[in-house]
């Protein structure tokens, strides 16, 4: 084992071991409150020390109540009629700022269905990081516009990545096309558990930025998967007059447009879009974000020995494996 | 002009190859796609003939297909019987109908576990030594007799009148189960193609665990008995006819294990020394999985707030949700088993158990138990992953000669010993009045430690796959 490999292993173990004390704290990791079910209210005269995080359910900050921290809305509903000393950030769910509400910090609207009354006071800046999306699914226009904007961004990024990091992108594309079931299964598992982990990390409050970064990392991996898929298709249709990076960019944008349109289809559309996301995510993960080729195990067929191609098949794959130790040492 | 995204290629290999590989740099011309490699056509359902049973259907090899179906139905019914009637129904019988204390019933269940383990080891080793392990008809006959006795025992269970009768019934049931483990798991080398072991294990797990939360409600002895009895009786009758009446169907199936695609497990393809150590190590790992599951769930099942919101929810949609998650988990695990090394599934199982126990303890630190569906969801994924592994792994470490013994060690020893030890430990902790939070945190810590161990094993020996295994002989 090389020193670099040993150091990487130690770093990995140290990182994983850091999770153990996280699960072993006797007290809360930070002060505040997390709402993930039911209805909760901070009534007049009450003060919440620390942040308020709303993941699901409903939270109300009544007039005359005070939150001595920030408010994060990641799901569910939050109605602010009282005072918040820190920032109010709405990333998902529904956020309502009443006439008597007062925000000491910034107001960040990043995807939540927000309603801000005219009388609401925001001492810091108000930022809209993404177009607001209605939670009831009625406003397809803004969703389509957001999707097209994202497609444009993905197309440009895929073009750039294709120029400078063509090999990693190609590996992801090969995994997505040749091993769609493995990609989908990996994406589904990683998506389900990753979502839970992100929410769990968000619970700690102090690690909320980490949770946001993890979520963004997941989105980047999905985008990489789709870009890889575009790169694979582009390899077959590009010509000297139509360079592959350009085709890759165009196709990547087209993939996102298709997924956006798919998501607009009633009932099954959302689920299909999620499956498409899982497919991309899985392809990216199987290739370790394009850093190595995905090579699944080779298993013997029935009748293979009689046909005499068992050894050939085994050698054919094993001889090419860049990560496989020599037979017998594994 | 050189393409900006020139791909490194390896002369006889395909595009793309790792940059550190031995390849020669070669641009991929426009309009050229990488050639497929052998693994592309034979792995995960994306290529032709990847699930070999589908190929058999196309070839109209109906005997082989029905044989695989027979294995799936036998194991799914048997597993459903085990996780519902044996693990839940008998608890209700002891406490509600016989008036025994919960501790007394749990002690008896521990006795049940240890007898099952002992009998399965004796029978497994005997079958291997006598050569019965390699004979399909012998295994089928043993399995049929076991099924018939279990039907009779289940039928007679409603006449149990006291603790002595209950104990005698449990001893008899444990003996049949102990005999049944090496016999039924041993059928895999005759009926399931090696390449389809993951898919078949996923199918069994998906069927059993979809029905378990959806159909077993409420967890009462009478309901579960009424539910399993007709299905088991029909299955046992069919198995007896098949096993004892001479027929060409079984004769054809009996010859299948001679093909290495059936009889030589995926991890036995390359015969090496040290196989016994591999079996012991994997049995120890599987013991860890069963132990964590059992120790955690024994405590969780006492918490009404967790059970009423999930497995015992009156809302059928919640139970269907858990069932669907089990199916998704089984499908994912089946794919993972086919394309990865078994250690990846161990890592997922330990990791998921670590995560779910962290999830359960987290609200306890913030206040009081707060059930959310994420908890049973992750729990269901973890259970499905290790169940698929348990159904597929032991056959893939075996040949027809060794399958009975290896199944007894893998399933009997690791599974039922873990149940015995975890039950005893849970009882001791209950008597010591250990709090829920502390109990779950210990379980969580064990899961995380084992997760780290498996991750380290994966890191330092990254590629076992289906390429380089060891025969356990």
Classify the beta-strand content of chain A into a percent band.
15-25%
Q: What percentage of the residues of chain B does DSSP assign to strands (E)?
A: under 5%
* Proportion of residues in helical segments of chain A: 40-55%
- Summed up, the domain count of chain A is 2
How would you describe this structure to a colleague?
- The complex is a heterodimer of chains A (330) and B (473).
- By secondary structure, chain A is of the alpha/beta class.
- Helices cover 50% and strands 15% of the residues of chain A.
- Chain B has one domain: Growth Hormone, Chain: A, CATH 1.20.1250.
- The termini of chain B are far apart.
- In chain B, 71% of the residues lie in helices and 1% in strands.
- Chain B contains 18 helices and 2 strands.
- A two-stranded antiparallel ribbon of chain B has the order 1-2.
- Classes of the chains: A alpha/beta (330), B mainly alpha (473).
- At the A-B interface, helix 1, helix 2, helix 3, helix 4 and helix 5 of A face helix 1, helix 11, helix 14, helix 15 and helix 16 of B.
Highlighted features:
heterodimer, A: 330 residues, 2 domains, five-stranded parallel β-sheet, 10 helices, 16 strands, B: 473 residues, mainly alpha, Growth Hormone, Chain: A, 18 helices, disordered N terminus
List the helices and strands and how they pair.
The complex is a heterodimer of chains A (330) and B (473).
Chain A (H helix, E strand, L loop, with lengths): L2 H15 L1 H6 L7 E4 L3 E4 L4 E2 L2 E4 L3 E4 L4 E2 L3 E3 L3 E4 L2 E2 L3 E3 L3 E4 L4 E2 L3 E3 L3 E4 L4 E2 L3 E3 L11 H25 L1 H13 L1 H24 L4 H30 L6 H21 L3 H19 L17 H4 L2 H9 L12
Parallel strand pairs in A: 1-4, 2-5, 3-6, 4-7, 5-8, 6-9, 7-10, 8-11, 9-12, 10-13, 11-14, 12-15, 13-16
Helix pairs in contact in A: 3-6, 3-7, 4-5, 4-6, 4-8, 5-6, 5-8, 6-7, 6-8, 7-8
Chain B lengths: L7 E2 L14 E2 L12 H4 L10 H7 L3 H36 L4 H29 L5 H21 L6 H23 L2 H4 L5 H19 L5 H24 L3 H7 L5 H4 L11 H26 L3 H4 L8 H24 L2 H25 L7 H23 L6 H29 L4 H25 L13
Antiparallel strand pairs in B: 1-2
Helix pairs in contact in B: 3-4, 3-6, 3-8, 3-9, 4-6, 4-17, 5-6, 5-9, 6-17, 8-14, 8-16, 12-15, 12-17, 12-18, 14-16, 15-16, 15-18
